[in-house]
Structure formats: C-alpha cells, structure tokens
Amino acid sequence: MSSANTHVAQLLYTPEEAAVALRFGRSTVYELMASGELKWCKRGRSRRIKASDLVAFVESLTAQPN
Fold it and tell me: 26 in a domain, yes or no?
C-alpha cells in the first residue's frame, strides 16, 4: 500500500490568515472588508476570503512613487 502525499491548495482564508498572507494587520483586513475593497463571503457566523479575491486585491494595488 502506498501513501500519496497530496497537497490541496487553500481556497478560503479567514481574515486572520488573509492578514498573514498579505502581511497586513488583522484590523486592516477587516477595514478593507468593510469598505468593499476586499471581497469576502459569509457562511453562518464565519467570514471567509477566496484565494482568488486575495490575488485580485493584490493585483489592484498600484505602486506609489518615491
């Protein structure tokens, strides 16, 4: 019998996990969610952010001039 080590990509992030991934503070992520800048979904009492929405948010950021 062989044991396959399969890796499943994370599809949904908690706001805390998203903050770690973005290297932002947790409060900043909640502010982005409240303002609509970062899309999120709610299931019961849980808030989750799709991995694709995190990527879209990062791609929407523009570089600031020095």
Answer: yes
**Separation between Cα atoms, residue 27 and residue 57, nearest integer Å:** 16
Q: What pTM was computed for the model?
A: 0.81
Q: How many folded domains does the chain comprise? A: 1
Q: What would the two tokens of residue 49 be?
A: 């952010």
Torsion of CA 30, 32, 33, 34, to 10 degrees: 90
Tell me which amino acid residue 13 is.
Y
Residues 11-34: pLDDT tens digits? 999 999 999 999 999 999 999 999
List 47's β-bridge partners, or say none.
42
